[in-house]
Amino acid sequence: MKQLKSFIKKEFFHIFRDPRTMLILFGIPIAQLLIFGTVIKSEIKDVHIAVYDQSKDITTQQITNKILSSGYFILDKNLENTNGIEDIFRKGKVKEVIVFESNFGEKLKKEGKANVQLIADASDPNTARLVISYTSGIINDYIKKMYPNLQLPMQIQPEVRMYFNEEMKSAYMFVPGVMALILMLISAMMTSISITREKELGTMEILLVSPLRPAQIIIGKVIPYLMLSVANAFVIVLIGNLVFGVPITGSFILLMLETILFIMMALCLGILISTAAKNQMTAMFISMIGLMLPTIILSGFIYPIENMPVVLQVISHIMPARYFVTIIRAIMLKGVGILFVWKETLILIGMTLFFIAVSVRKFKIRLE
Amino acid sequence: MEEIIKVKNLIKKFGSFTANDNLSFDVYKGEIFGFLGANGAGKTTAIRILCGLSSPTSGDVKVAGFDIYRETEKIKKNIGYMSQKFSLYEDLTVAENIRLYAGIYGIPPKKRKEKMAELLKKLEMENARNKLIAGLPLGWKQKLAFSVAIFHEPKIVFLDEPTGGVDPVTRRKFWDLIYEAASNGITVFVTTHYMDEAEYCDRVSIMDAGKIEALDTPAKLKERYNAKNMDEVFIKIAR
Question: For the complex shown, is ipTM > 0.90?
Answer without folding.
Answer: no
